[in-house]
């Protein structure tokens, strides 16, 4: 299993002089772990909420097909920079943004040490139920219980997110769960938001229009900029602006 973390690393400079939020270094960490096994460094992966001093805003994204977390690196970095810029404009207290993504089982190349081990098989296939369980295990075992937590699902990842939502809602200060696929798993409707593209071949706009009748006003957003379903390739910058409305 591969997962990556994007973290804002604020360098020491005076923005009044040097000016641009694009100068902020965004650090990326990629780790290979067994879901019930090893842990990351304490400063990154402290699971427990730290009470009033916990300034972490955690954003967790489950990708769509082909299930490679690396495709979301540019989007994650842009999103964090946008969030930092917004915090600066509003004069809010300093917060730490963490952006987590996780690959689907056997959808990315295993590192050499795992390819050669007896416990991991590169040709092993996993069912949808096993992929969903994998995401649930990861969230319960590793995802920090930050000050605020926002969860996103893209395409098939939206199905997985909605599938695990009933089992994790009470473990986190979960503010919103945002998806991009038509689903009937509408538990906890107050938390669920959907974003639909007008020209999305994977999810016809009629699904979005039908969903808008099932949820409270504002919980279904229809894209107006012709963003493609596979937004990570050409529309990462646009989507990094669009999703700001969900992170408050």
TrEMBL record:
Keyword Hydrolase part of the UniProt annotation: yes
One Pfam short name: LIDHydrolase
Keyword Transmembrane helix: no
Localization in the cell: Lipid droplet
A single Gene Ontology CC term: lipid droplet
GO terms assigned for molecular function: sterol ester esterase activity
TM ranges: none
Class of the enzyme per the UniProt entry, highest EC level: hydrolase
Top-rank taxon, per record: Eukaryota
InterPro entries membership: AB_hydrolase_fold (IPR029058), LDAH (IPR019363)
Gene Ontology biological process: lipid storage
Keywords in alphabetical order: Hydrolase, Lipid droplet
E.C. designation(s): 3.1.1.13
Catalysis: reaction(s): a cholesterol ester + H2O = cholesterol + a fatty acid + H(+)
Family to which this protein belongs: Belongs to the AB hydrolase superfamily. LDAH family.
Protein name as catalogued: Lipid droplet-associated hydrolase
